[in-house]
Amino acid sequence: MSTGLRVLSVIVALFAGVLAWGYWRASTHAALNLRIEDYGMRTEGQRYGKAHGAAIEFFDADKASLATARSIEPYGYMQAFHPDARVQSCALYDGYEQRDAYARCFAVHSRWVADWAPRVRFARVTVGDCVLNDVPIVAKRSDSDWWLWWVPLPHVGGTPLGYFDIIVAIDSKACKVANK
What we know:
Elements: H1 3-28, E1 30-38, E2 49-50, E3 54-59, E4 65-72, E5 77-81, H2 99-116, E6 122-127, E7 130-136, E8 140-142, E9 162-171, E10 176-177
Parallel strand pairs: 1-9
Antiparallel strand pairs: 1-2, 3-4, 3-6, 4-5, 6-7, 8-9, 9-10
């Protein structure tokens, strides 16, 4: 084998290794977008509203509990919580001084999300007095940019992550699952 072919083979192998690592990282670490669309709060100007005072418990196909979530007030956004109460919410870390603590927290949470989110099938949703059991859940996964992680540009690349989007559609006034 000529020297040029060896060099090319090494470059191809290194590039394949870089891509393989990116794919592995995006498969094992993920961020989560979670929200409740409450169609019972429909107005003339909006299709749904944010559910305040809400809680969700997520279950797998065997009805084993995977995670819990609750609305963060007064904003009404949903945040998932690790079942082990010793693992704190990463939202506790804000500001420039706490960026290292946040990074360590997010490393734990991103591995946890990548583990449970693809397995979720049902939820128990509580909004005020309305409790809905066995709400079907589909976690939509996106990891289309994992292969760009090595690009050294400010708005491209970075550590690859998978992304999960979980949207729970309910009608809290009728206390039922809503069709979007």
